[in-house]
Amino acid sequence: MQSPSTPLIQLTAITRHFTVGDETVSALRGLDLSIAQGEYIAIMGPSGSGKSTLLNVLGLLDRPDSGHYLLDGRDVTGLDDDALARARREKIGFVFQSFHLVPRLSARENIELPMVLAGIDPAERAERVELLLRDYGLTQRADHRPNQLSGGQCQRVAIARAMAMRPSLILADEPTGNLDRHTGQDVIALLEGLQAAGATLIIVTHDPELGGRAQRQLHMVDGEIVPEAA
Amino acid sequence: MRNADLLQYAARVVRGGVVRTALVLLAMGIGVAAVVLVSALGEGARRYVAEQFGALGTNLVIVLPGRSETAGAGPAIASGETTRDITLDDALALSRSLAVRRLAPLIVGLGAVRAAEGADARVREGPVLGSTSDFLAVRNMTLSQGVFLPDGDPHHAAQVCVIGGTIAAELFGTQPPLGRWLRIGDRRFRVIGVLAKQGTSLGLDTDELVIVPIAAAQALFNTEGLFRVLVEAKQRDQVPQAKADAEAIMQQRHEGERDVTVITQDAVLATFDRILGTLTLAIGGLAAISLAVAGILVMNVMLISVAQRRSEIGLLKALGATAAEIRRIFFSEAVLLALGGAAAGVAVGLLGQQVLVAAFPNIPFASPWWALVAAPLTAVVTAVVFTVMPARRAAKLDPVQALSRR
Which pTM value belongs to this model? Predict the structure, then answer.
């Protein structure tokens, strides 16, 4: 564990360009950002503002074109694909708008998947999956496939899966986007509970009410973080 | 990822896509079954020929009249005109060679055989063979009753014969054949022995054979010339010596003329073995082409699988799967499919082989071990090779793009 003074995430002058046709679009323009362990952050902004790109960079799914990214005090900018994959596996849990559950696997197996990929012993996996199923109220639904589950249940399975490897960072991309208001609130409560238990939670959303619940809001416009009320 | 988990994951995919799995299994199965069956045919032919030659005797050198430059099939036929007969004395002279254990001169002809007494004398047209007492040992034959042709001067035509089991039953019914007389043409022979059942050998069914002394056969068929002389060498390594001696002796007796052909059983067998072995390999290889076609189907199915599972692959990457792990997942799928297809193919092939054996019991159809190993191996290797491209494509997918596609 890092000392309290070291932030979990430290971005310095991060840039990311995309070439669309013969035009170069800057999704991130020299971003500086520091996030401490245990923070609750909402990234907000209109579509095309670069918030998804920022989330992908934070989640090690995308590489910045320049700048430095220190995760847990370690520079991850120069790591190769395999090292990035391992870092994702150990440190980061993803929650997606469209859940991204594997349709042929049961709820139990979907939750187990990150541990399977990590090569964790089956006995230990089973124990941890049972625990997660209980924590997320999914025990009755453990052997159902995603198409037999409601949207809220699907997102709970996805969150349980994100937590399977006990990550220190949870990245949620519009986690309530495909859910009705009531179910969305349940899911947010669940995520906030994880943050209260010590995890760092970063949510991308364009819902101001949802963003308002975070401790800190990052407003993005044209690839830059702007002060509030921009 | 642990290997057991990898297999289980792949098995879920394989079981999930019933139609595509069935298609690949079918294609792979047909390919493997074709290799197994076709090689069983070839191997059956090879073994059949080997058995036929093996039943002829051991360490045999065969002397035929006429000179043929080509080793192998039918020299007497190939040479066209017969130069000079091999006489009984020529044959007996061959025993001068120290490498020769024993020999049997041979005359073969067709004769009308009937029981000598009894009103309902049934006539049977069948092969009649003239030889000497050593014939039994040279040809590795056995008797079920009585004795074989007597020793003594081969020029003396004793009025005795040894007959096959079928002939005995047809001529004498259930009565004991020993001591009975039968008539071939205008000559009478007393039955002194019955051959044990030993099946066919080079087209001659021993059960339907009548064997008479060589001199009797010469008189019967009105010929001095022998059909061939079977010479048995003392040992396997003396076969070449026996062959050389036979050639030398015959040349000497025929005023320096090399007008006989001497072949060894081994040489003929080796030739047939080589030809039929190569043939089996060649047709097996042709059948294996169908496996390559199956491989292309595997590639197709895998490419579709990669395209359909883009978001799953993106997810696996987000969850921390490395490129190598993604590739292994796809290779596992391909290998599972190939193994399934190979198992089905081997099963169908062996079943087909049983059907062949049942239909043609004379020919020992059997897939050679190399086909049973090579066919499944080829299937697996083909599947792996044709999955390289799809697997690499999957492993190279950009997780951001793969996940954003809805």
Answer: 0.74
